[in-house]
Structure formats: C-alpha cells, structure tokens
Amino acid sequence: MTELTSYCEPLRLRLSGSVVSPGTGPADTLGVVVEGDVADLTTLANAIPDFVGRGHQLYIDRRAFRPVVVLARVKRAAFDAEAAKAVLDRYKGPVWTADHVRVVHHTYRTDEGDRYAEVRTHPFTSGRSGAR
Where along the chain do its domains lie? Predict the structure, then answer.
C-alpha cells in the first residue's frame, strides 16, 4: 500500500445529493454521493485489491467501486428511503481533502453495528518532497 499511495496526490471530495437502492420497489438503502476527484478515487479504489492481496491471505472485496457513502440500511418492509432521499437530494457538503488511505480490519459485530480496528494509515505522498 505504501508503494501505491506514493503515486497518489491528495483528492478534493465532498458529499452531495443522495442515492437509494434498490432502484425499483421500496428503497431500503440510503446513501450520499461522493463528488470531486472521483475518477482518481475510483482508480485508487480499483488498484487497492491487487496491492493488498499480494502475499496476504486477506478477504478482498471485489465488488465494483461506487463513490457512495451508505448512511442507512433498513430490513423492515414498511420503510421506504425515498422520503429521506428527497431531503438529501438538496444537500451539498463542504469540500475536504483526502490525503491518506486507512486500512481497517472488521473485528466483530454487535447489536449497535460492526466494529473495526485500524491496521495502518498510508499517506498520499506524490508531489511531496522525497516522494517517488
């Protein structure tokens, strides 16, 4: 990962608008869309499985990357995320700079949600003095 992030420059991102799924029927997942340097973010996300998987016996999530932050998943059939989507569609969050990748490990699941532990942080070093 250090090698991969040595080629990365900081990304300017923001959360804006919303997305629900599934696309048909009652929506049970609500998220906000990531905007900004999404092409570079997608390139990085698509490269990570190859770098992390080298020589490690780790589970690699190989689903297609979607620049979305999931806010809620509901299992009740009576819930439809469309009402919340209408509110979030108008949301335009502040722009921030992402300057590192944080590798986390899923440690356990509780009634309150999943728990993760940080494994390592890898800063983006391209363009910095001493970077490749």
Answer: 2-99
